[in-house]
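Supplementary Methods S3. Input chains for the assembly prediction are listed below.
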Amino acid sequence: MTALLRPDDDVLLRHAAGLLDAGFSLVVETHLELSGASRALHAGFEALGGLLLEEAEPAPVDPAALNAALCAIEEDARPGRSVRAPRRPEMPEGFTLPRTLSRCDIGDWRWIAPGLRSCRVALPDAASRAFLLDIASGVRIPRHGHEGDEMTCVLRGSFIDGGTRYTPGCVAQAGAGVEHDIAVDSDIPCLCLIALAGRTLPRSWLGKAYQKFRDL
Amino acid sequence: MSCVDAERPALSPEEARALIAAIARDMDRGAFAALFAFYFPRVKAFLMRAGAAANVAEELAQETMLRVWRKAGAYDPAAGAVSTWIFVIARNLRIDRLRAEKNPQALDADPSDAPDAPPTGEAVVLNGERDARLRRALSALSPEQAMIVRLAFFEDRPHSEIAATLGIPLGTVKSRARLAVAHLRRHLEDLA
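Predicted structure tokens for the full assembly:
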């Protein structure tokens, strides 16, 4: 576990470039919404995209493209798309989901272990998985390793990992092979958004319970 | 591949802003045509480098330009340069397309196209300054580092593949990529 409270530069760059999978994108966007720690750098990386776009070697295009665009503009009566309200389970009282997450479908709460419940966040691609984890005050999630990258953004409450305290908006990143355990130190339960690229390798019964859920 | 310092863009940031303003204010089709001439082939090039087939890239570039027309009124100069705004629109459309191909039932999330800088009165000046610094930072990179940044940014190439393309060891690519990002970051943070 690195002691960064925000995503790695590389992750921010990949998000700005549009190259991050859906789960990690969701964590990065939630982090950008809740915390100012990465906004300037991320905006800079997006500006880099703009500069690289300006200097790109122009591709050969259909000479009729401008006309087609001008015609499309003339008949620009956009049909209203029907967007249904996302479904989601009941959230802790007094807690409002960040705007980024309120656009997602979220499954029902599932019991994992005492003081630990979770729900899946539906993602538009299958390359990663995301879920909310609600951990009661004082609960520890014992050592567990990773086959792939894991990225967590705290939404409510706080936890300690490796001597570092993570509060709402903070991001914890763990790479493949890294083992860590976390302990909730806030008076209220700690609610986190977690994205995973691989499977979690449990080292204990609680970790196993955690994995049972993850395999669902 | 062109070099930042060798070739000034044919459309300055100020000119681009004025064109967007003319579209927003007067639905100025001439301004749209000028913007289209500059950006359409470049957006298509970006999408093709990101892996889209030529016809898909052309279609998405077309959609990008139409969104520029429709949303010109929502463009906020305080949030970033026009090139950044158009880049973000094209990027988001590309992501939507990729996800729709994989999962046709996906909920339309309507991602915001606004770059996420805080909109303050000074932001336009600050962003202009930042972009000028970024330009200098890019041109100050060694040709190899600049190439690595472009490959990593536009083409999602794994470092191993970049190593094979450039004929240098994987470890070297990794360390130079880190250096290049750190270099850009320093230039960005001086302003933050």
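The first helix of chain A runs from residue 9 to 17. Helices of chain A lie at 9-17, 22-34, 39-54, 65-74, 99-102, 205-214.
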